[in-house]
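In the current project phase, we have settled on a layout for protein records. A sample record is reproduced below.
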Amino acid sequence: MFVPQVTGFSGLISLWQGIFAGMTYPCSSQAVPAGILGYLCGMNYFDLFELPVTLLVDRSRLAQQYFALQKKYHPDFYTRATAEEQADVLEKSAMVNKAFRTFQQPDLTIRYVLELKGLLQEEEKYELPPDFLMDMMELNEALTEADAGSTAVLEAKLAGIAGELYAEVQGILENYTDGSTPAGDLQQVKAYYYKKKYLERIRERLRNIASQN
């Protein structure tokens, strides 16, 4: 099965050209952005799990649906199926696992919803606010001088910033209603996603410094 890599707008054009040329793309493919993959497979992760499109997934419902889908698409139940049917079941099973991993992580769930709404693109160069970048620059400078005694202080500071960022969008995340929440609110969530992503890179750097001391 031929699965081309999709990068940028030109890659998207090639993808659709491939569809019209009769090529197929497995639902578990890593080569296609998750939001686009939903259209190719005829469903998105929320459809697959029979969950409403939300920015905060109900964990108990998620677990129930996951175990039900694992049973539904377990290969042992399809030993007498055709080769094509078995391949389809394996792809669906892989998609279930990929969706479950996405829904288990709030940041990945936010990313997925933004992709579904066409608000987040692969390799997008998102411009963060100058004041936020200045704060991050100060933290990066502090990291260059960090030692065993200061890493705990810096970690606490990073946790505080993360909490402030979340508080700015908490109401949107908790009350999101698909089709009703204003587009401007989703743009705020997008800004939060990229700020959090930047912050996590600094956190990772701090963890590396702490492990060396």
User: Anything to note?
Assistant: The mean pLDDT is 83. The chain has two domains: 8-116, 130-212.
